[in-house]
Structures are given as structure tokens and as C-alpha cells.
Amino acid sequence: MVITRDLRTEILERLKTEDLVQIPASESDYLDLASHFPFKIEYHQSEIYTMGLASFYHELIAAMFATILNNLFMDNDEYTVLGSNSGVQIPKFEGSYFMPDVTVVKGEPIFKSNSTAIITNPYLIVEILSPATDKFDRESKLHEYKHLESLQQIVLVNPKRVQVLSYVRTKTPNVWLNQDFYDLNEEILIDNQSVTLASIYKKVKF
């Protein structure tokens, strides 16, 4: 636990001057730290990744998307919408833990052993991109998410301009359909239901 307290202090100090902190750590250190760290914290290839407070519009879009999904699935108790404090483990990549901005679980959640906070069977994941994590989200997390057998769709949203990227699993193994949207009048399909980009970006000022 002393190591965890030292990590906490170092991360918080570095966040005062760095947008994104990467720091080597063990999986157990991460799990100890994640349970009480004040910011979103992730773990990949034996390193902790974390950033400070998210921007106003980042959080606005995340909240709006969660509301949209709750409305879509309101009449279906099979779906559960979760916020960014819920963790996702990538079993294929030992020691990878991410915290999507919005997660949907279909059916009963399957938790990591000895946890009620980290799930292994997300159905839909939404990530709001940020300048600090854009490369990490696109190049590392996106590809690891695709190894989750339960996952059917990944949505990336750019809060700086109108840009929504959708990746939908096809019936062909390891083949995903990617569609990019750039107009507020366009619609993205989520579980065969239409969602306009205008509703996702409602109240966002560019």
C-alpha cells in the first residue's frame, strides 16, 4: 500500500503540469489505486494512464450520450447504461483495464473475479476523445476493445468538431464495419435505432 500512496502522490503532482500521465506500475498497484483515485485511471501494458479533469464539453457529450442510450433502451430491461466510473477488463490482454465514458451491458454483467466494479462483457462502448488521449484511444484501446467477444459496437466522439466514428461487429470473425459521420443532420445506427448527431452534440459550442 505504501507503493500505491507514492504512486498517487507522483501522479497528482505530474498532473499539475502534464495533460496525460503514464507511469509504470503493477496490476495490483493499479487496482488498489483505481478504487480511490479522484480521476479516471486506466492500465495498459504495465503502465497507468490518467488525465486530470475532463473538459466541460467532454462531460456534456458523455452525459448527453448516456441520456440518449437510456431513452433508447428505456422499455427494455435487458440493457443497462453505465457511466465512466465503471471499469472494463480485456481478458485477452492480461492486465488491461479501461474506463469508457459510457458503457452498455446487455443481459447480466459478468464481473472480474472479486470485483463488482470491473466488467468483462460490455455490449456497447462510447469514448469521448480528447487531445491528451486521442492517440491512445484510437491506436491502443480501440483495437483491444475489438477482442471483447460480447462487444457489438464502439463509438468515438470528437468534442472539438462534428465527428462521430462508429465500429460495428459483423457476422464475419474479426471484421468490423467502420462508418464516419461529420454532419449534424446525419444519423448513426445504435442497436438498429437511429440517433442524430445533432442530439449527440446538443448544447455543444464549437
Helix content: 25-40%
Tell me the CATH architecture of the largest domain.
Alpha-Beta Complex
CATH topology of the largest domain: tt1808, chain A
Q: CATH H level of the largest domain: which superfamily?
A: tt1808, chain A
User: Would you list the SSEs in sequence order as H and E?
Assistant: HEHEEHEEEEEEHEEEEEH
Name the average pLDDT. 91
Provide a descriptive summary of the structure in words.
There is one protein chain. The protein is an alpha+beta fold and 206 residues long. The chain has two domains: 2-51, no CATH class; 56-200, tt1808, chain A (Alpha-Beta Complex), CATH 3.90.1570.10. It is 26% helix and 30% strand. The chain is built from five helices and 14 strands. The strands form four sheets. Strands 4-7-9-10-11-12 form a six-stranded mixed beta sheet, sandwiched between helices. The chain has a three-stranded antiparallel beta sheet with strand order 1-3-2, with helices on one face. The chain has a three-stranded mixed beta sheet with strand order 6-5-8, with no helix packed on it. A hairpin with a 7-residue loop joins strand 5 (87-89) and strand 6. The protein is globular, with a radius of gyration of 17 Å. It starts with a helix and ends in a 6-residue tail after the last helix. 32% of the residues are buried. The model has no long low-confidence stretch (mean pLDDT 91).
